[in-house]
Each structure stands twice: as C-alpha cells, then as structure tokens.
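can u do me a favor
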C-alpha cells in the first residue's frame, strides 16, 4: 500500500490498491501546474484513494471540461486530478507526492505534441 503527502504534510493519503497506469503528461496544463516539463501521474479507482488528513485543505480547480485538479491550499502541492470522460470513476495521483517507494513496471509518455522543446537537450548544448 502506498502513502503520500503534500510538501507541508497537512494533506496525507493512502492508496488501497496498486495504481494501474502511470504516465508522464507533457500537456501544457500539467507543465504550468507543476512548473516542470511534465507531470507524472498514477491512476487508480477513486474508491481506492483514502485521505488520512487535510482533505478539507484541498482546493479544486476546473482546468478544462470535466477535469478537476486538487492541490493543498497551504503549500500548493499538486495531489490529484479526475473527471476524465473515458474513466469517470478513476483518479490520477501525482507520483512525486508519494512517501513510499513506487517502482512502476512501465511509464507511458502522453501529449508529446506539447513536449518542452528544451527537454531533449543534452548537457553542454545551448
């Protein structure tokens, strides 16, 4: 069972099942929300996500259509997103928020059409 928390520790959670899908999302919304080239998420049924503390501190943002992103209102850590039309009963958890070791068998890169142009540069290139 995996556990996780936000940066300040106010929000904590545990997963009751092993995530089924892991992806590096390169969409511009994930780039902006994380301030990074991509965000890595692990998906599982919503019923298998249990908040242990701080659920009342989560702030929701409707980023597009039915998609709702949740983050800690104290420290700003991204925790989850849900609302996929294809998988309405699933939630995607930010892997970087896990406190336990998570070593997925595979990670899929998605939305590569908006991949950061500087991501593939090797050291020393300008």
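np, heres the sequence
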């Amino acid at each position: 069972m995996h556990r996780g928390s936000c940066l300040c520790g106010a929000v904590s959670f545990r997963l009751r099942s092993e995530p089924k899908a892991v992806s590096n999302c390169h969409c511009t919304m994930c780039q902006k929300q994380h301030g990074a080239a991509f965000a890595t998420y692990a998906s599982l049924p919503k019923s298998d996500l249990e908040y242990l503390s701080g659920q009342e501190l989560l702030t929701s943002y409707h980023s597009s259509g039915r998609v709702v992103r949740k983050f800690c209102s104290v420290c700003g850590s991204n925790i989850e997103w849900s609302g996929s039309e294809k998988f309405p009963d699933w939630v995607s958890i930010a892997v970087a928020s896990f406190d336990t070791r998570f070593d997925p068998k595979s990670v899929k890169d998605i939305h590569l059409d908006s991949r950061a142009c500087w991501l593939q540069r090797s050291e020393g290139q300008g």
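Residues 2-114 form a domain with the Metal Binding Protein, Guanine Nucleotide Exchange Factor; Chain A fold (CATH 2.170.150.70). hope that helps!!
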